[in-house]
Design brief:
- The structure is a single chain.
- With 139 residues, this protein is an alpha/beta fold.
- The chain has one domain: Rossmann fold (3-Layer(aba) Sandwich), CATH 3.40.50.
- It is built from 7 helices and 5 strands; from the N terminus they run E-H-H-E-H-H-E-H-H-E-E-H.
- It has a 5-stranded parallel beta sheet with strand order 3-2-1-4-5, with helices on both faces.
- Helix 2 packs across helix 7 and helix 3 packs antiparallel against helix 4.
- The longest helix is centred in the middle third of the chain and has 14 residues.
- It is globular and about 35 Å long.
- The two termini are 13 Å apart.
């Protein structure tokens, strides 16, 4: 069974019904059916809360995050993750934190809409649609 790291853009697309929300919803359906193990970080959830609160309100955002939390496990972020991010070649510190938390856990795929954000790493980085296509082709 694959393990996935779900980046904030996927969750924001889903909750804010942005352009790629259909793919995000399909991915979350696969996760909800327990076909895969999915993870995120506290930073992702904080980013999602911040953005979704702007789209709607705090109560709706927290309700949505509670629902997501039932589907997603939380990756720990410790001193080693921070130190690796600080020493990395990632241009964005936040992306580096996410990446090294995922790497430390042995995640199979990072799912994001912005693949270049993780281009400095060696983990497989794909979009929600690319993952859905993989699942469908493997039956």
């Amino acid at each position: 069974m694959n393990s996935l790291f779900i980046d904030s853009d996927i969750l924001i697309d889903l909750l804010a019904q942005r352009e790629h929300h259909v793919e995000a919803a399909a991915l979350m359906t696969i996760i909800g059916e327990k076909k895969i193990t999915a993870y995120t970080t506290p930073i992702v959830l904080a980013n999602v809360d911040y953005i979704i609160t702007k789209y709607s309100n705090k109560a709706k955002s927290r309700k949505a995050i509670r629902a997501l939390r039932k589907m997603l496990s939380i990756l720990p972020m410790d001193e080693k993750v921070v130190d690796m991010a600080l020493e990395s070649e990632f241009s964005d510190f936040e992306d580096a934190l996410q990446y090294y938390a995922a790497e430390k856990r042995g995640i199979d795929f990072i799912i994001t809409r912005n693949k270049r954000d993780y281009s400095k790493g060696s983990l497989k980085v794909i979009t929600a649609q690319e993952y859905i296509n993989m699942v469908e082709s493997n039956g």
